[in-house]
TrEMBL record:
Protein name: Methylmalonyl-CoA epimerase, mitochondrial
Function per UniProt: Methylmalonyl-CoA epimerase involved in propionyl-CoA metabolism.
E.C. number: 5.1.99.1
Keyword Metal-binding: yes
InterPro entries membership: Glyas_Bleomycin-R_OHBP_Dase, MeMalonyl-CoA_epimerase, MMCE/EMCE_epimerase, VOC_core
Domain VOC: 31-159
The keyword 4Fe-4S appears for this protein: no
Assigned keywords, A-Z: Cobalt, Isomerase, Metal-binding
Catalytic activity: (R)-methylmalonyl-CoA = (S)-methylmalonyl-CoA
Family recorded in the similarity comment: Belongs to the methylmalonyl-CoA epimerase family.
Gene Ontology, cellular component aspect: mitochondrion
Length: 159
């Protein structure tokens, strides 16, 4: 019975009644677009998701980003598989430290990339570039420094 009383504690009422709309970034962050996974074997990773019944795209070279991308479509989001392209691929550097691959970044949509950049900078969150670049979906993107984001590389993408 005492364990049930925990849920009736006054602090839980305060926490549960707080809405996301009160958060300072509520007007900035949209839906999760994708989770990106670096892989040393793109074909093996693609086959893994195909065998689970997912719709998996063909590999697309993204020379300006130094990667090949494959998108795995899920009902509520996507997984982006990343594989090195070229000698200066940031994914190769990641794989040098993580031989089996792993989560590389998450991508969150924003309504206005320029406003998003201004907002994060005002909160002392560094961007990895001064201007947005065109991402794999043909939309403006910017990456946020993982040291300012709890150790996670975050990509913001224009809706």
């Amino acid at each position: 019975m005492n364990s049930l009383r925990l849920f009736a504690h006054p602090i839980s009422k305060v926490v549960s009644s707080r809405t996301m709309a009160s958060h300072p970034l509520s007007d900035l962050l949209g839906r999760l677009n994708h989770v990106a996974i670096a892989t040393p074997d793109l074909e093996k990773a693609s086959t893994f998701y195909k065998n689970l019944g997912a719709k998996v795209s063909e590999a697309v070279p993204q020379p300006e980003h130094g990667v090949y991308t494959v998108f795995v479509e899920l009902p509520n989001s996507k997984i982006e598989l990343l594989h090195p392209y070229g000698d200066k691929s940031p994914i190769q550097a990641f794989l040098n430290k993580n031989k089996d691959g792993g989560m590389h970044h998450i991508c969150i949509e924003v309504k206005c990339i320029k406003k998003a950049m201004e907002t994060v900078k005002s909160k002392k969150i560094r961007t990895l570039t001064e201007k947005p670049k065109i991402g794999a979906h043909g939309k403006d993107v910017v990456f946020l420094h993982p040291k300012d984001c709890g150790g996670v590389l975050i990509e913001l993408e224009q809706e």
